[in-house]
Amino acid sequence: MTKSKIIALIAVISLAFATTAIDNAVAHGPKQPPHQIADLGELVLESGGVIKNLRMSYVTHGKLNQAKDNAMLCMHGFGANHHHWDRYIGPGKPLDTDKYFIITSDTFGNTQIGFEHSTSPTNSGFKMDFPAFNMRDTVNAEYKLIKEGLGIDHLLAVTGISMGASKALQFAISYPDFMDGIILTVGGAIWTTEIMYYMTELQSIIEACAGWNEGNYEANPRDCAAAALRSFVPAFWSRAWWNENITTPEAFQQWKQLWDKWYFGLQDARDLYLLSQASARSDIATTPGFNGDLMAVLKSVKAKALFITSPYDRWYLPEHIEVQHKAIPDSRIVSINSNAGHLLTAGDPNARWAAGEAIRGFLRELEAK
Hints:
Blueprint: H1 3-24, E1 36-39, E2 43-44, E3 50-51, E4 55-61, E5 71-75, E6 89-90, E7 95-96, E8 101-105, H2 135-149, E9 155-161, H3 163-174, E10 179-185, H4 193-207, H5 222-230, H6 239-245, H7 249-262, H8 269-280, H9 294-299, E11 304-309, H10 318-327, E12 331-335, H11 349-368
Parallel strand pairs: 5-8, 5-9, 6-7, 9-10, 10-11, 11-12
Antiparallel strand pairs: 1-4, 2-3, 4-8
């Protein structure tokens, strides 16, 4: 075997280890709990629009105890689904199903196809006439799921990854007495301008794509959504991660095939487009009642807060996390030195383990409290 082939093989093996957790979290396996749908009636949106028949899809793991004090909500990232947390859920894992009742939901406006999921522009039938929504509206939908759909009045914790982490923070602001703690993994109240650039670019790529037809299509132009996300995803990792893991054309093709399988190729273009608009109009500082004062918003958080971050994250910068940590009364930061950056829970096995241990310890503290 030539030296160049050996290097290529090492790169492919390295990438395989780095992305195994993604591949394992793609499909709904036969041994996993069943998908469930909650019909929750009317949802009034902040824009004034009304969803008359809100439906939320979710999966539960473990058992709700008699006191109903062991439940937690886990929310996924942008363009993902309820499987985003699978690698952490199970007996003896950080989200221990022998101890906790875990609710993993699909966000309101969810974008993935291939399974029945929460109300979105496409599956509601509204398509491009779907009322404007933001992340506070998605949090309100999650609250209805927990409170009205499952009859749970209080959560041990609300957790999220990326967009889900920002939603967990919003949850603690909108419903300050509803949970004991929040776990914010690579997310928070302050985005970099780089995110806004990519969100705008994502919309532009979809708009310019053949088959888009201003969103009034019958057959989903799946390639439009895939192309838009491919422009967006490279910034999930640091440049150092790319230099270490994607060193050959073969490694790039393996990376692309894997992500096509679980992320790029599973999106409804219309839902993705409108979710990106919703994300762009979701400044936590504009929470009603705070006059745009972000520090006042953050100081209102009553829940104990854990930030899990990486100094290599290009989306939620360490200095921004530090500002939020100082403002939230009972909070701390666990910084994991992983060049996987924003994807530290999926792109680096050691970082994934460290994040899991931080979550495990934090939940023990909440239980003791």
